[in-house]
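Supplementary Note 2. Why include the ligand at all?

Several targets in our set were suspected to adopt different conformations when bound, so apo predictions alone were not considered sufficient. For every target with a known small-molecule partner we therefore ran a joint prediction. The input for adenosine-5'-diphosphate is given below.
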Amino acid sequence: MTGTTATGGVAPDAVSCRGLRYSFGRTKAVDGVDLTVVSGEVFGLLGPNGAGKTTAIRCLTTLLPVPAGTVRVFGHDAAKERMAVRRMIGYVPQQLSADASLTGRENVALFARLFDVRRRERAERVALALEAVGLADAADRMAGTYSGGMIRRLELAQALVTAPRLLMLDEPTIGLDPIARTGVWEHITAIRAATGMTVLVTTHYMDEADQYCDRVALMHAGRVQALDTPERLKAALRDRRGDDSAPTLEDVFRDVVGGDLGASEEGGDFRDVRRTRRTASRLG
Ligand SMILES: Nc1ncnc2c1ncn2[C@@H]1O[C@H](COP(=O)(O)OP(=O)(O)O)[C@@H](O)[C@H]1O
Ligand SMILES: [Mg+2]
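The joint prediction is reproduced in C-alpha cell form.
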C-alpha cells in the first residue's frame, strides 16, 4: 500500500513487514507477520502478554535482526540499512529508559547527544520536546521525583528529541492509573497532529487502542489474526453475530482467537510478570 503526498509524489509506507519470523530457541515469538503501517497513522499492535508484540517491534527498530522475512521502514530495509532506519525512528521501550538521578532536562539532553542532534540546536530541541509532553515546568526536577505518568512522558520526550518520522512505543501506558494513561495518550495524539509523525504502539489495553488508534492488528501466538480499523472490526463481528449488540474490541479479539486470550493480565509467564512489576514499581 502506498499513499500520495500533497505534492503528488508517492510516499512509501512507514512500515512494511512481510513474513517476519523470530524465534528464541524453540519459542516462535513471531511466526510470520505481515503488516503495513501507512505514513501518518496511529497504528496499534494489540495482544495479550506473550503474543510477540515486543519481539516484533524490536525487529522493526533494528534492535533485533530480521532472520526471516522483510521489514522496510519508509522504504529502507531493516536488515541491510540499519543506520538509515535508526535515523528515522524514535523508540520508547517497555522497560524504564529514564535515569532517576538526572533532571528531566538532563535525561532528554542525554538522548539528544547520543542520537547526534546538532550541538547548536540541542538546547532548543530539548526544551521543545519537554514542552510537547507537558514537562516544561518540571524539567529541572530530578526524574526520581516524577509520578509514573510523568516518567512515561519524559521517555516520550527522549524519543521525540530527534524529531523522528516514526515513533514506536512499547506498552506506553502499562502500570499507569487511568488519568495518567489518558495524559500519555493525549500528548501522543497532539504531537502526531502537530507533526504528521507516524505512530506505532503496542498495548494489551483494548479500550485504549479502540479510542486512539486509526487501525489495529490483533496479534496472538506470534501471528496477526485480524487487521483493520476498530470500527470495521467491531461492525464485522456485529454482522457475524447477526444481532444489534455493541461489541467491544476485546469481544472481537475473543471471537477471532476462538475465546482463548491465552496469557491474560493475571497470567503470562514468570518473566512477564516480573518484567511488568519491575517496570510498574520503578515507575511508582
Ligand atoms: N529474551 C527472550 N528469551 C526467550 N524467550 C523470550 C524472550 N523474549 C520473549 N520471549 C518469548 O517470546 C514470546 C513473545 O514474547 P514478547 O515478544 O515479549 O510478547 P509480548 O510483548 O506480546 O508480551 C513469549 O513466549 C516470550 O516468553
Ligand atoms: Mg511486550
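The domain at 14-279 is CATH 3.40.50.300 (Rossmann fold). The chain has a mean pLDDT of 89. Comparable summaries for the other entries are listed in the accompanying table.
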